[in-house]
Amino acid sequence: MGLKGKGKQWVTAVSMMSALLSGLCSTTAMADEAFSICTSQLANKALEQGVSQETVDTIFPSLVYQARVIELDRSQPEFVQTFPGYFSKRVTDWRTNKGQEMYEKHKDLLHKLSDKYGVPPHYLLAFWGLETNFGNYKGKMPVLDSLATLACDPRRSKYFTQELLVAVKLFERESLTREEMVGSWAGAMGHTQFMPSAYTHYAVDGDNDGQINLWNSEEDALTSAANFLASLGWQRGFRWGREVQLPEGFDYQLSGYKNRRTLSQWSELGVKQADASPLGDDDTKAYVVVPAGHAGPAFVGYQNFRVIMRWNNSEFYAIAVGVLADRISGASGIIAPLPDLPAYSRNDIIGLQKKLNDRGFDVGTPDGIIGPATREGIRNYQIANDMIADGFPGLNVMQSLNLVDKSA
To answer: Do 25 and 131 share a domain, yes or no?
Structure first.
């Protein structure tokens, strides 16, 4: 069959998968046929990109559609994660103690990596701890099957097709087995949960055995993490950020990445370290992060804070990495208490977004996610209603919009 015919067959396969996922077609036989056609086309793409016939024959005919992967890709949590809930489950005594234990095991390597890449040992350990509990849980989903399932699904087919093809090349290059290629439902792999493209570009043979194996070699995983962070722009000699005290009457419109200032400028505005000592006279740029509203802890994030977010684009994650790293190195955790925040459902936040839009505070299409547009809309609403403008959906905001019982 010519390439045009193959292209039509590929479109047909994706269309069939779409119909299946929409509930228009439900029989196992039809699902198997659609997946088989799709993976056949993926096999041809792999051959076109230089993968050997032997590897293609080893992998593609035995790929298995993973319905659970699609369920996880489509699922959304019922409740919106709050910072206290997120942080308390991730920055724990167990992870701190285990990180210190792993430092003793790998301290020679960790200091060599710090010298070479500029990333201090406690940060590498914090990433490792948050990603897989120091290798205790690397995921159990078959990576090649998961990536093939997502590649054959129309929602993000292009991205996952690329990741699958890279994974197949890794399988060949590193002489891996399908049994050891397990990971998250989305295809993240090994101790440091690298996607195949990150594995290809940044993984390093840390134990010098001639193979890069992020599942079985802790040395490879730690070296790869250091190389990845350096490539993302880690600034040698700088912290992630720190907890701070904000002055009474602080203008929360000054928070956020767009409002970066030098530490000297923040000091002039009354910002102090968490223990009330001076923030310092320095030209290092930082921005204020208030993850739980004005009632919760406040932080300043430096450039390395943004580097952490390039690994995982979440301020909650970046704070967790930073504080866990501090604790592993012997420092204390957060000084300010974590507030007891209300547990909002996604429907609560959708209701909030609708109300804000109705009142002229545009937050975009209601989706139940508290992103930058929603925080800005809340902040503008708070300003208009003489509230503390921290951009956080506190109980007073929800009550004023009649979204929760005012007696709560």
So the answer is: no
Residue that has been written with the tokens 């993976």 in this structure = 39
CA atoms within a 13 Å half-sphere pointing along the CA-CB vector of 92: 11
> Is residue 388 within 8 Å of residue 382, measured between CB atoms?
yes
Q: How many residues does the chain have?
A: 408
Note whether 312 and 376 are same-domain residues.
no
231: in domain = yes
Both tokens of 110, joined, read 């960790």
Quote the tokens at residue 114. Answer: 């710090």
Asked if residue 175 and residue 106 are part of one domain, the reply reads yes
pLDDT, tens digit (0-9, with 9 covering 90-100), for 37-90: 999 999 999 999 999 999 999 999 999 999 999 999 998 788 898 999 999 999
Looking at the fold, whether 30 and 143 belong to one and the same domain comes out as no
pLDDT tens-digit map of 164-197: 999 999 999 999 999 999 999 999 999 999 999 9
Q: Which domain holds residue 53?
A: 1-62
| Cα dihedral sign, 90-312-223-230 | negative
Do 29 and 161 share a structural domain?
Answer: no
Sheet with strand 261-262: strands edge to edge? 261-262, 285-289, 298-301, 241-245, 272-273
- Residue type at 161 in one-letter notation: T
| 3-class SS of residue 69 | helix
Cα separation, 295 vs 272, in Å, equals: 17
Q: State pTM to two decimals.
A: 0.88
Which of 9, 28, 62 represents a domain boundary (last residue)?
A: 62
**3-state SS assignment for residue 298:** strand
Structural element, H or E, at residue 219: helix 218-232
Same domain flag for 165 and 201? yes
Please name the helix (run of DSSP H) or strand (run of DSSP E) that holds residue 243, with its range, or none.
strand 241-245
Residue type, 185: W
What six digits make up the tokens of 19? 């119909």
- Contact by Cβ (8 Å): 293, 310: no
